[in-house]
Specification:
By secondary structure, the protein is mostly helical. Helices cover 78% and strands 0% of the residues.
C-alpha cells in the first residue's frame, strides 16, 4: 500500500511540475505576443535602419527597468517581461522540485537540486550582488 501511495504522490508531483512548465511557457508567449502587437501597432510603420546596430536601452537590461517600461505601456517592456518569465519558468520548476525533495526527506536529491538551483540563480543575477 505504501508503494501505491508513493507512486500516486510522485505522479501528482510530476503533474504539478508539468503544469508549472506549461503555464509558464504559455504565459510568457502571451506576454511576448501582447508586447509584439503593441510594439507593431506603435512602431510598425517606421522604416527599419539596418546600417546601424542599436542594442536594447539600459532601461530594459534590469527587472526594475523592465517593470517601469511595462507600467508605461511600452511594447518592448512587455516583450522583455515575457522573456524574463520564460527564463524564470524552469527555475521555478527546480525550486518546486527542491521543496518536494525536502518534504520527502530525500536529502541526496535535495542537495543536488539545491546545487542546480544555486547555479541557475547565480548565473541569472551574476556572481556579485
Amino acid at each position: 500500500m505504501a508503494d501505491n501511495q508513493r507512486a500516486l504522490e510522485d505522479q501528482q508531483l510530476e503533474d504539478t511540475l508539468a503544469k508549472v512548465l506549461l503555464s509558464g511557457v504559455i504565459g510568457a508567449a502571451l506576454v511576448v505576443l501582447a508586447g509584439g502587437i503593441l510594439y507593431l501597432f506603435r512602431h510598425g510603420g517606421s522604416p527599419p535602419d539596418y546600417r546601424n546596430f542599436r542594442g536594447e536601452s539600459s532601461q530594459l537590461r534590469g527587472l526594475a527597468g523592465i517593470l517601469r517600461e511595462v507600467a508605461a505601456g511600452r511594447g518592448r517592456g512587455l516583450i522583455q517581461l515575457g522573456l524574463v518569465l520564460l527564463i524564470a519558468t524552469p527555475v521555478a520548476r527546480v525550486a518546486l522540485s527542491l521543496v518536494a525533495f525536502a518534504r520527502e526527506r530525500d536529502w541526496v536529491y535535495g542537495i543536488f537540486t539545491l546545487i542546480v538551483l544555486a547555479t541557475l540563480v547565480m548565473s541569472l543575477v551574476g556572481w556579485h550582488f
